[in-house]
UniProtKB/TrEMBL annotation:
PANTHER family: ENDORIBONUCLEASE LACTB2
Domain Metallo-beta-lactamase: 30-202
Pfam hit, one: WHD_BLACT
Protein name: MBL fold metallo-hydrolase
Source organism, top-level taxon: Bacteria
Cross-referenced InterPro entries: LACTB2_WH (IPR041516), Metallo-B-lactamas (IPR001279), RibonucZ/Hydroxyglut_hydro (IPR036866), Sec-metab_biosynth-thioest (IPR050662), WH-like_DNA-bd_sf (IPR036388)
Length: 285
């Protein structure tokens, strides 16, 4: 499943090294990609799960160099838990996404929130951390989570896209914290930008990012149209709708698919196009 071996530093460009964490799953693909930015001083983006072997690997790569910041795109438990032990080992501050306390987690989804995430500094849209020869500027991209940030490396035209844009699949958008309207707006925001390459939280680097983002927008609009056509034929419960939309889907991914369909339905309800009666959804108007 892994696209390259875990624990091996891969030099993607002079300022960027990638390390794959050993946490493959149906929701993380080969695992979480941790990125180390810089030469003489460093930033570590999304250090990943609290896995001792992965943390030891990161410390070997850091090799005693000063770490200016441990940067978090969002605090799902496959992205942020290693921030605390890594901060303790390096003295670096944890910066990035604002902590969110989400209730009502849905068992079976690997992407549960890291309840222990405690940043030293929250970065607002446009704020940055800097080191010798590098800058990481926060770009608010809510939708996958309400607190999701991407980070631009203007020195090379790269963007670290977290789970907003991934290199292997579209993101799960799971209410109540995930919001399909915000997700679509964040994709539209990326279309107005010109970064040359995306480094995602999962999967390989995206070398034609504008093409992929346009495709992701088209895919979500296609799903929305599919929902409206199904509801036009009569009311349906969420489970039946998902089964008709995702024929042949890996059963392990059905809970995630249901959450994304529900996110579409909430968005349609907010726009006055669908509503819920009991356990069934219907078209309005």
């Amino acid at each position: 499943m892994a696209e390259h071996p875990t624990g091996i530093p891969i030099q993607l460009e002079p300022l960027v090294v990638r390390v794959l964490a050993p946490n493959p799953s149906p929701y993380t693909f080969g695992g979480t990609q941790t990125y180390i930015v810089g030469h003489d001083d460093l930033a570590v983006i999304d250090p990943g799960p609290d896995d001792p072997a992965h943390i030891d690997t990161l410390l070997r790569i850091i090799a005693g160099r000063p770490v200016r910041a441990i940067v978090i795109t969002h605090h799902h438990r496959d992205h942020s838990p290693a921030s605390s032990p890594l901060a303790a080992a390096t003295g670096a501050p944890i910066v990035g996404a604002v902590p969110q306390h989400v209730t009502g987690d849905h068992p079976g989804l690997d992407a549960a929130f890291d309840a222990d995430y405690a940043p030293d500094r929250v970065l607002a849209d446009g704020e940055a951390v800097q080191g010798d020869g590098w800058t990481l500027r926060a770009l608010a991209t809510p939708g996958h989570t309400s607190n999701h940030l991407a980070f631009v490396l203007p020195e090379t035209g790269a963007l670290f896209s977290g789970d907003h844009v991934m290199g292997w699949a579209t993101s799960v958008v799971s209410p109540p914290d995930g919001d399909m309207g915000q997700y679509m707006a964040s994709l539209e925001r990326l279309l107005g930008r010109d970064e040359r390459i995306y480094y995602p939280g999962h999967g390989e680097a995206v070398e034609q990012p504008q093409r992929l983002v346009r495709g992701m927008l088209g895919h979500r609009k296609q799903r929305e149209g599919q929902i409206l056509r199904l509801l036009a034929a009569g009311p349906l419960p969420l489970a039946d709708m998902t089964a008709r939309m995702y024929v042949g889907l890996d059963p392990r991914l059905i809970p995630a698919a249901q959450r994304s369909v529900l996110a579409h339905l909430y968005d349609l309800r907010g726009r006055g196009l669908a509503d819920e009666e009991g356990e069934q959804w219907r078209i309005t108007g």
